[in-house]
Amino acid sequence: MEATFAAARPLRGEVTVPPDKSISHRAAILGALAEGRTVAKPFLLSEDCMSTLSCLHSLGVEWGLDADRLTIDGKGPDGWRRAGGELDAGNSATTMRLLAGALAGRPFTSVITGDDSLRRRPMGRIVEPLRRMGAEITGEENNSKPPLTIHGGGLEGIEHRMEVDSAQVKSALLLAGLQAEGETRILGGGSSRDHTERMLLLMGADLTFAGEDAMTVRRATLQARELDIPGDISSAAFLIAAAVMVPGSRLLLSGVGLNPTRAGFLSVLNSMGALVTENNYRETDNEPRGDLEVGGARLSGVEVEGWRIPALIDEVPLLAVMGCRARGETVVRGAGELRVKESDRIAAICVELAKMGADIAETPDGFVVRGPVSLRGAHVESHGDHRIAMALAVAALCAEGETVISGWECVNISFPGFARTLHDLR
Ligand code: S3P
Description:
Blueprint: E1 2-5, E2 12-16, H1 21-33, E3 35-41, H2 47-58, E4 62-66, E5 69-75, E6 87-88, H3 93-103, E7 109-113, H4 124-132, E8 136-139, H5 140-143, E9 145-151, E10 159-161, H6 167-177, E11 184-187, H7 195-202, E12 206-209, E13 214-218, E14 226-228, H8 233-245, E15 250-257, H9 264-272, E16 276-284, E17 287-295, E18 303-304, H10 316-325, E19 328-332, H11 345-355, E20 359-363, E21 366-371, E22 379-381, H12 386-397, E23 403-406, H13 418-424
Parallel strand pairs: 2-15, 3-14, 6-7, 10-11, 18-19, 22-23
Antiparallel strand pairs: 1-23, 3-5, 4-5, 7-9, 8-9, 11-13, 12-13, 15-17, 16-17, 19-21, 20-21
Helix pairs in contact: 1-2, 1-3, 1-7, 2-3, 3-6, 4-6, 8-12, 10-12, 11-12
Residues 22, 25, 94, 166-168, 171, 192-193, 313-314, 337 line the site of shikimate-3-phosphate.
């Protein structure tokens, strides 16, 4: 499916962004591991989160949706049953990695697979420590790629030092550790998103921290909760970037998640000269949130080093777009993880923005963009990656002429209705 975008008039108005995708996945999975009725609202009704729900259904977990209100009747991990067939995680690595962690503790065999993109993504990072805990797991390419066959149960706690700063790996180990004998200690990985830790604490897990870089989880029964899910800052980021780049814009975004492990994009925007005002900061269900006000700004180039990447990992393609409109050089380093996301996001954004006239050069772990340049409309490709598709749509709003984006349907992975939302703000 193709979508066509042209230069935007100023974006004005108030918008509620879709619920957080990471937190929605966790609400479903932790709710399924807990005892009692978990209610999560609003739950993100996107393809990725539906993949999680459909896997849980296959595992015998009872849940219901009433519009965007999810109810899960958890019976603890012992209530999970062997699925009749393969579990399909679709495009969602969060579904595959977190469920693999949970299934490593279940005494039956599961096979979990996904679409072409997911079957190319690295799984050795979870398979190795989960096997060390005692789960039998095999996969393609020397156990490093999906489909994964997991025969779980009889886990023992381990100490694991994180090699990549990945919330998905950390979460897989926490969900296995919840079901293991003894202590599971995770060292490092402290700067990746911490939604799992926050929700586990709300649900009564035995999780303790020693300094910023070590945590220990022990077996415990999770208690069901009512969870109020904030707006997804990674979805908000596309609208924020559009408002910053299209002169005369002014947007109000209410109830956006402002967890510091996710909000790195806002501080980089600040360094680029954009002003995003946070109002009404509050914390609900252990997750900070607030209302954001943003308008058009003159941007300057910025250097973003590796230590800042985890808190804005999914927003990096947008930095390339914004770099095209900023005066001077925008340099991103230490973002090699982007090469193993839904697409190789470094290659994808560089190739596609170059078609629109960007002065951008790919590096092994990032890119260098020189600006400002006048972007021009072009025929570009999403690479089947929702965040690339939406970043290109934002670029199109400040380009001359029309941009046609093919493979547009992938935006339903995280932000169904994105094109309509943009349209309604103009
Ligand atoms: C996610 C973690 C990040 C992020 C992904 C969602 C999560 O991946 O890129 O979109 O929900 O835990 P990594 O943890 O692999 O960096």
